[in-house]
Amino acid sequence: MSSEPINHHVPLQPALPSVPHHIGIIMDGNGRWAQSRSLPRLMGHQAGVDNIKRILESCVKHGVKVLTIYAFSTENWHRPPEEVSGLMRLLGLTIQRQLNDLHKNGVRILHSGRMDGIHPQLQNQIRHALEVTRNNQRISLNVAFNYGGRAEILDAMRRVVADGVDPETLTEDLFGQYLYTADLPDPDLIIRTGGEWRLSNFLIWQAAYAEYYTTPTYWPDFDEDELYKALFEYNRRERRFGRVLEK
Ligand code: IPE
Ligand code: IPE
Ligand code: MG
């Protein structure tokens, strides 16, 4: 055994050369996290909400500028009504409880998804959160709520047609301006917790060239070390965008 003192100045997580500008997270596994503890699924969702803050803070520390979190999909309406209403209530409560803190910490809140179908009172709470935080610049937290990638593309298409856009002038960039994420750069990294290897209708247009990372860890257990592992793996990827890279 070495008698060398442990050097506490050596960082356990060395800084990484490349940090994604925009990360998307499919926060999956809340239900299984709860079931494995014999708790109701909604307690898993509450634990999932509690975890957002720690990962958001860790993203700020790493220098990530946009974090998109998948919170409720257009397909999630097919869950049992109690779970759906529980998830709706949870978003309202979270805005009530967390908005001040998020605002104080310089977080700009954005929403990606359809407002239609959301209870009018919750719609107002969402609009209020966007309005209050709109000038914040530390990090953007984009909440994908009542979000579906296909619905988004359809909504965009409807507006393109309604605007009378000449088909000849329609480009990928112009089309991107009609998406919910109009002002955001595409995600560089998509993380999915809970072990599945699918996108489940998340950012299907925007993630065309994102790196994909999945871990079996359930979302409530996905901590700073788990995020670091994902960022480390991201650094090992060679992003070619269809090109041949000169060595
Ligand atoms: C993800 O966790 C959160 C939402 C879809 C709202 P799940 O509720 O899908 O958790 P599992 O996949 O059943 O464990
Ligand atoms: C994706 O998780 C949606 C969210 C995380 C909000 P799901 O649990 O709904 O996805 P599937 O059903 O496994 O594809
Ligand atoms: Mg799931």
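^ magnesium ion complex. Residues 27-32, 72, 76, 87, 194 surround IPE (ligand 1) (CB under 6 Å). The chain has a mean pLDDT of 96.
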